[in-house]
């Protein structure tokens, strides 16, 4: 049985996530009280009432739920050999305020004494214990509906890999750290193609940028160090039954150095492994 739990802040895209999962043949239940989660799983295993793939939406509408028990419940579920993943969606407060204003929807925690902004911050606190247990987090602040759908499909695909998927992700520090990373390497100490006028509009996918970086010993030494580190510790992550491992590579803008490093690392590890993915956060590629 595959169990996908979806939680997060109101207005962050939980409904979209459940719609995507439904399209992927998951039996979806929204707004399930936390206290009923274990009972649902137990009944599903005993009576086979539902499909083998189940998705559950849990959020702050069940405000009476004891979210402090969430970690314990998830561990109990995993002890039954259920493939369980927790996805948490969130966004910046300013973005959530704008979304509620545009849709004119009511936040579930607002009332005559609680403003929308206060409700959002209260919800963050209420759901913090679920967020801390999440296997995957998505900040939807800068994602439209189509991008979010693609991102969720991508994560579910990784979860269903028969072997651990190795994902290299480039990003720009000036845009903020990505949520979904297991380890991170910083390229900002390396020569920057940005200061070459002819290279500035290009990306790390262009040959001219690759040639520029490859001629610097520091870049090649960084590549060798990361490659050796990943090769040394990869088996340890696989032994822990991980579905995927995300290695984030960052530079200032996420356009040149980190992109080419990700491309070069992915190309190398694809020679050894079945499932290797290169993704570039700032190039809007999934």
Topology:
Layout: E1 2-8, H1 14-23, E2 27-29, H2 37-47, E3 53-58, H3 70-79, E4 83-90, H4 93-103, H5 116-126, H6 128-133, E5 136-139, H7 145-159, E6 165-172, E7 183-186, H8 207-214, H9 217-239, E8 244-251, H10 257-269, E9 276-280
Parallel strand pairs: 1-3, 1-4, 2-3, 4-5, 6-8, 6-9, 7-8
Give your account of this protein's structure:
This protein is an alpha/beta fold and 286 residues long. It folds into 2 domains: 2-159, Rossmann fold (3-Layer(aba) Sandwich), CATH 3.40.50; 165-283, no CATH class. Helices cover 41% and strands 19% of the residues. It is built from 10 helices and 9 strands. It has helices at 14-23, 37-47, 70-79, 93-103, 116-126, 128-133, 145-159, 207-214, 217-239, 257-269; strands at residues 2-8, 27-29, 53-58, 83-90, 136-139, 165-172, 183-186, 244-251, 276-280. Strands 2-3-1-4-5 form a 5-stranded parallel β-sheet, with helices on both faces. Strands 7-8-6-9 form a 4-stranded parallel β-sheet, with helices on one face. The longest helix has 23 residues, at 217-239. The protein is globular. The two termini are 27 Å apart. 36% of the residues are buried. The mean pLDDT is 88.
